[in-house]
What we know:
The structure holds two protein chains of two kinds. Helix content of chain A is 65%, strand content 0%. Chain A has eight helices and no strands. Chain A has helices spanning 2-10, 15-33, 41-50, 66-85, 96-104, 127-147, 151-160, 164-190. The relative contact order of chain A is 0.10. Helix content of chain B is 68%, strand content 0%. In chain B, helix 5 (97-105) runs antiparallel to helix 6. By secondary structure, chain B is mostly helical. Chain B contains six helices and no strands. Chain B is globular, with a radius of gyration of 17 Å. Chain B starts with a helix and ends in a 6-residue tail after the last helix. Chain B has helices spanning 2-17, 23-30, 36-57, 77-93, 97-105, 110-128. The longest helix of chain B has 22 residues, at 36-57. The relative contact order of chain B is 0.11. The chains are: A mainly alpha, B mainly alpha.
Amino acid sequence: MLDSFFLMLKQPWPWYVSGPIIGLCVPLLLIAGNKSLGISSTLREICAAILPGKINFLNYDWQQQRWNLVFALGLITSGFVGGILLNSNEPIHLSVETRELLIGYGIANQSGVMPSSIFNFNELLNLRGLIMIVGGGFLVGFGTRWAGGCTSGHGILGLSTFQWPSLVATITFFAFGILTSIFLLPVILKIGN
Amino acid sequence: MIQYFIIGFIFGLALIKGEAVSWYRMQEMFHFQGIQIFGIFLTAIPTAIGGMWLIKKFKFKSFQGETIQPRRKLFNQGTIYGSALFGIGWGLTGACPGPIYIQVGSGYFISVILLLSALLGTYTYAFFKERLPH
């Protein structure tokens, strides 16, 4: 009984299981302490805690928002449990179209959560890897803070509380994500090949 | 504080087991070739709406006895410019901030570089904030 439950946990969860659990975290956080879901804020927290300098935006009482860092610690732990202890070690069941598209990009090895041919330390020495990893990560940190939220803060919390600025943000980052993936990514992947 | 750790853990477990931290799944979504990630979004939001409705309907208080008040999201030009830049970064890395933390926990050391790059981005924003349109 417990064994089969464990086996079920190990399998990838269908969207209709993961989605509602994720959504449930919005009211849970509010009840647990009147906290609003928003993960990109943790990046500001870390900056403010480590090196606030004389920057106004980083000189605030970050200790007041410590809960957010505890939340992030929960995320990291879930990565260890979900990605290592509960790893099914099965290849991802992508749609045939996506699998072929990625093979066309030269990504034949589709194991793990990201292609190791691009996301690795040696690639950091190439222009392609620098753009993908450092450039992409930079834009995530810069853009989310300028926008005042990310997929969680705007996309889930903001939308589910019917806040129109979050609708604008969500439409914008989805649109640019789609455009980037379809038009920009194939160009960048060709660099240095 | 432990409650935030537990909720973060549950949230993260649903993300990683739902394959929402996967670069491949993200590209699949951006090309409208699969339902996994859209499905997660489109069930998460109504669930959250339902929860919010219950909180309002029964006037739930937080554990600390406070009236529940979700954060107000304000609009300015940055909402658009920032989201556009984030979208580009998301399209390339396939990761928003949550999945970056989760990948680090799963032992993807390269995601530490992603996290440091994102921190650098936030730091740069903080540095230039006054000079950017808002």
